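To whoever picks this up:

The parser on our side crashed when reading a file containing two proteins. I've narrowed it down to the boundary between the first structure block and the second sequence. Both blocks are reproduced below exactly, byte for byte. First block:
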Amino acid sequence: MKAAWFESFGAAREVLQVGEQPEPEPGAGEVRVALRTSGINPSDVKKRAGSMPELLSDGYIIPHSDGAGVIDAVGKNVNPARVGERVWVYQAQHARRFGTAAEKVAVDSSRVATLPDTIGFGIGACLGIPAMTAHRCVFASGQVADQRLLITGGAGRVGHYAVQWASHAGARVIATASNDADAEACREAGASAVINHQEADWSEAVLEATGGQAIDRVVDVDFGGNLEQVLNVIRVGGTIATYASMSDMEPRIPFYRMMFMDLTIQLVIVYDMPESAKLRAISDIDQALRSGWLRHRIAHRLPLEDIAQAHERIERGGLRGCVILDID
């Protein structure tokens, strides 16, 4: 089968290869998916660059955790009726070597979910890390109806879904964005107000938008970079759910200030979410897809052969949407 892989860590153009690899066979409890698309996320790029050195201990890596396609074979203890099912794949290359940057992947049957006939495979490749992470950030503590949520980076891969989850659930959403186009995308997704986080003291504008009422829950794209401003707006007993801290990867926190505010810090990574949270996210994603209200943003679609270019686009940053490889 055609696949992309790397045998050493380094720059995308230096280590990524595209060629032929053995076709996988599904083991017990697994399905094999004939992939149409592969979704690339920042964690995939970091792995290729060497963030997890132990990955290469057993051989080459076929990268990427997200994707979509059609089940073409099943292993023992899997209902053979699943053959022919359109699915989206998540967590394919978590704690294992073989991901979705290939014509086929064999994964545990619990890591594929039905993709409705009305939804394209490109959208299917966006649902694993971006949509599930956003769902966990919004709902980890329960329902958010009538709460005030601040979602930083509301036009980003995760933020765009978080705005939609929260607003559809009945929360009042304040989003941040850095330009007019992104601000409009946040409003279209359901934000009642959008604040420019490039401005100094943008927390003051958040409180102006809420009429001086503090924020109940923050979904944060940059914990270290935004913490000072976030603490100016969050209520006593509030929660910060964060999934990244790229501008300061080892942030220092004002412990006593946060302690006397009785704050909860929720660190979210989709791979290690409780299984119950994954199942709830999958169920809600399925309902949203079938109802047609969930919107998606795809920034770039490239062929598998251009995987290095796709990795470089993510590394450059500034993307507003998913980066997808077309396998077929």
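<<boundary where parser fails>>
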Amino acid sequence: MTVTCCIRYVIDPFQLGAFEAYARAWSRIIPACGGDLLGYFLPHEGTNNIALALISFDSLAAYETYRARIKADPAGLANFRFAQDKRFILEETRAFLTPVEAPAVVSASRRR
């Protein structure tokens, strides 16, 4: 069973560039530590202080192994310190999700 960790960040909208640098750094670190990074998503329109990250794992046990690796990884530790020093993350919450098995859906752009 695949499990996706959805991380919801409340960020300082005046430090969007710092958060983007933080997210870009994870794009190399997360896969190296065992996560399947689906992406980081920055605010675009509407609310200007909410960002998301989606990372998938084969199981919750795989997530726990990943967490141990990322906390010991030098690049991961440096990125955590960067966020603490710059203080652009005001709040961080996690939800663990599983996909809904459904027939293939045709996107709106293909219906035209």
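After patching the parser it read the second block fine. The two ends are 34 Å apart (CA to CA). Residues 16-58+73-98 form one domain.
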